[in-house]
Amino acid sequence: MYGGLSMKFQQLKHFKALAEIRHYAKTAKYLCISQSYLSTSILNLEKEIGFSLFDRNNRNVVLNRNGTIFLEFVNRLLELLDEGIEYVREMNENYSYVNIGILPEVSSLLGPKFFSSIDLNHENERIKVNVKKISKYSKDLFQDLKNFKLDIIFTTKDNINFDKKILDYSSACPSNPRETLNNIVLVPVLNQKFVLLVSKNHELSRYESIRISQALNYPFIKYTDNTSLDDYVQSLFEITNNRIYDVSYTVDTYELAAGLAASGLGIAIVPDLPYLDYIDAHKINISYPVYSRTIYMAIIKNDHINPQTKKVYNEVFKYAKKNNLISKNFKYKLHL
Question: Which spans are transmembrane here (predicted)?
Fold first, then answer.
């Protein structure tokens, strides 16, 4: 029941068919039901929604103004239902795929080389890891995980208040974010270091290591608000009770930030990735605050995880254990 209505999809299909055929007897024959059953179904639908849908003339019927408008919405609803059925059917048929979501600045670290280093064979079949979504927003990844569009995500939780709101995303979830947090398992997978990037002829290029406070007088290249990178940089400055005073550019990605910094159009805090070795810029280690961020593997904790997803999770879990990224008290392993 929705909004006080108890209409059935069957009634909507009856309405759609009658609207197109415009004849009770022919419509009933098409639907393989009796004419009286069809008539009762339409009358009940009109009674429930509170307005008539047809102008009747003996056995011929024509949509009235209400019916014409209502038909547009019914068509959209039934099409959406068909799409949903087809999507779930395809998802079940492609069980050997594990759909993951990932931050762009993490994808180069957890790419083909990483997944080729773990065992992805299950019952003599090679599991296919499908990078279905790359998003600069942790919020988007958590939402798609909660909506079962993604099986596993690799992301951060730099801003815990921000993440609690996301984990309390669904109205069906408990009102207490801590309860909702228990539905998602977060496994630390790696630590990501950040550096300050400047052009090779910049005043700061004489340094190999620097305190963040020494860079405050220079124009910064800032990241778009609420992106994962912006969360990290803001946290970095909060530790030192400082903020960016002069912004030369605002960008979405670390590649853009690095390119602008290399061109002398500002300085940028960027993740220390292999990509930086291929651009003409100077990389400076940040000596204070010493603050790296943790990349987590996140998965929904429920009883309906397919075996392939469990296999990928457990292999990454083993990798994290082997590299001492998980505390000894953390023992959440999925049983195949």
Answer: none
pLDDT at 167 over 60: no
- Of the candidates 128, 15, 34, 134, the residue with the CA atom closest to the CA atom of residue 78: 15
Lowest-pLDDT range of 86-90, 211-215, 264-268, 290-294: 86-90
Mean pLDDT taken over the chain: 80
pLDDT tens per residue, range 16-28: 999 999 899 899 9
Query: Is there a domain that residue 267 lies in?
Result: yes
Domain boundaries, position 157 = 94-190+295-323
Residue 126 lies in a domain: yes
DSSP-assigned beta bridge partners for residue 211:
288
Residue 331 resides in a domain: no
Q: Which residues pair with 134 in a beta bridge?
A: 102
Q: Examine the domain organization and report whether 204 and 284 are in the same domain.
A: yes
pTM of the model as a whole? 0.64
The domain boundary, picked from 91, 108, 128, lies at 91
CB 157 within 8 A of CB 163: yes
Residues β-bridged to residue 268: 197
Q: What is the DSSP string of 218-239?
A: SPEEEEPTTSHHHHHHHHHHHH
Domain tally, the chain: 3
| Residue 310 shares a structural domain with residue 285 | no
Hey, is 214 helix, strand or coil?
Answer: helix
pLDDT in tens, 293-321: 888 888 887 767 778 888 888 888 887 77
**Would you list the DSSP string of 262-309?**
HTTS-BEEEE--GGGGGSS-EEEEEEES---EEEEEEEE-SS---HHH
Q: Is residue 336 a part of any domain in this protein?
A: no
How far is the C-alpha of 56 from the C-alpha of 295, rounded, in Å?
Answer: 65
